[in-house]
Structure formats: structure tokens, C-alpha cells
Amino acid sequence: MNKFIFAICLTMLVCISLSAQNSDIVIVKAGTKVLDYFPVGERYLYPEFKEGQIIFKNGSINKARLNYNFVLGEIVFNQGKDTLAINRKKELRECIVDQDTFLYDNGYMKLIHSGNVRVGFKHYVKFKDVLKKGAMGTTARGASIDSYNSIASSGNLYDLVPDEDIELQKMNEYFISYSFGSFVQFRKKNVHDLFPQHTDEIKIYLKSNKVDFDSVKDLMRFADYLQKF
């Protein structure tokens, strides 16, 4: 009896684990709007627009009520009844929303570690695949996806009504920058590339400290260590 109960519990844990792993996948059915799969309360980082500043590299500052729309991947602001995105992204130095700082480097990222070693966090929706119905009701992947990728990269994924089922994924990615250079994905290889003179020391740290590169806690601790260089 105990073995039977244990087996049931184990099965339930496996199902929960698999469900958690797939929870960031969104299947948009043909003929429906992408927007319908992301209720208003789930599109934005903050529950309401907050007072913020848009600061440009030339020193000019615009004040506005801001929010981050992760479906669009944009910092947006209110203008009358309209919600608009910032146009001059390449001229941005930073956006400050409430107590948070956002930088723009091939997309917006929230600065979560400052100093000589900066860590940025990106949360956005990525187009993943087209799902076509194959023989005997099976699903065929790897269909022509160039047009959808183009739509996603141009920021028009938001209003898309696909002709076929498509697969989207909610992405959480971490990036690192050293000495105020460009950001790269926070991965072991990139860390070694950023600190070529400290490769041996970093290897020793990684051997002594298991780093999960998808764990913000581990990455913040690792960034604190790298800060001494």
C-alpha cells in the first residue's frame, strides 16, 4: 500500500514538474489574436503606470508615466488616451520607472546589478515556431517561419492574427556587461571572454561554487565576485 501511494505521489510530482517546464509556452490558435492570450494584467511589469524619466544620451530628460509591456518588449507611456512606445531607442541612456532602471541594448533590460559589472534582466515574448497539422492529426514543426520572425522582430507580433497555429515562449534572460561595454548573455563562455586575464581564478570559483546561469541568486553572487576585477 505504501509503495502504491509513493508511486502515485511520484507520478504527481513528475506531472507538476513537466507542467512547470512548459508553463512559459503559449500556443496561439489560427484565426485568434496574439493579444487575447495575454490579459491586460499580464502584459505589464507594473500593475499601473508609474512616474518615470526617459533620459537621453544628450542629457535631455522627459518625464512621463511609464510601464514595461513584455509582450511588446517596450517601455510605453501614456499620451492622452493613447499608449505609445519610445521612438528614439538608440539615443537612450536609461529609463527610470519608479525605483527601477532600464537600459536599451538590442532590447530593454532591467538593471539588477550595477557597478563595474552590470547585470541586466530581459523578460519578453519570443516567436518560437509554426505548428502545422500533419498526417493523421499529428503536428508538424519547422514550417516556413521567416515571415513570422520578421513580424516578431518588427514589433508587430502584438496585433498578429496568424493563419496557422503558432508557438510563443515567455523568455527570461540575463545579460552581463563589464566596464560599461555592450551586454552579452550571462553564460560561462562569455564570462571567460570578458575576463581573459582571470580565467584561472574564475575556473576555481566555478568549481567551488555551483552556478545555475538561470538563477538570479547565483548570478548576483557571481557578479559580486567578478566585481573585484
Report on this model:
Mean pLDDT is 83; it is low at 3-22. It contains 6 helices and 12 strands. It has helices at 2-22, 40-43, 146-153, 188-194, 199-208, 216-226, and strands spanning 25-28, 50-56, 61-69, 74-79, 82-85, 92-97, 100-104, 108-113, 117-133, 139-140, 165-178, 184-185. Strands 1, 2, 3, 4, 5, 6, 7, 8, 9, 10, 11 and 12 form a 12-stranded antiparallel beta sheet that branches.
The helix content is 25-40%
Question: Tell me about the biggest sheet?
Answer: 12 strands, antiparallel
Contiguous runs where pLDDT drops below 50 for at least 5 residues:
3-22
The span between the termini is 58 Å
Our estimate of the beta-strand percent is: 35-45%
Tally of separate helices = 6
Shape: globular
Strand element count = 12
Question: What Rg is obtained from the alpha carbons, in whole angstroms?
Answer: 21 Å
Order of helices and strands: HEHEEEEEEEEEHEEHHH
- The assigned structural class equals alpha+beta
Averaged pLDDT, please? 83
Please give a handful of descriptors for the protein shown:
229 residues, alpha+beta, twelve-stranded antiparallel sheet, disordered N terminus
List the helices and strands and how they pair.
Layout: H1 2-22, E1 25-28, H2 40-43, E2 50-56, E3 61-69, E4 74-79, E5 82-85, E6 92-97, E7 100-104, E8 108-113, E9 117-133, E10 139-140, H3 146-153, E11 165-178, E12 184-185, H4 188-194, H5 199-208, H6 216-226
Entry summary:
The protein has six helices and twelve strands. The longest helix has 21 residues, at 2-22.
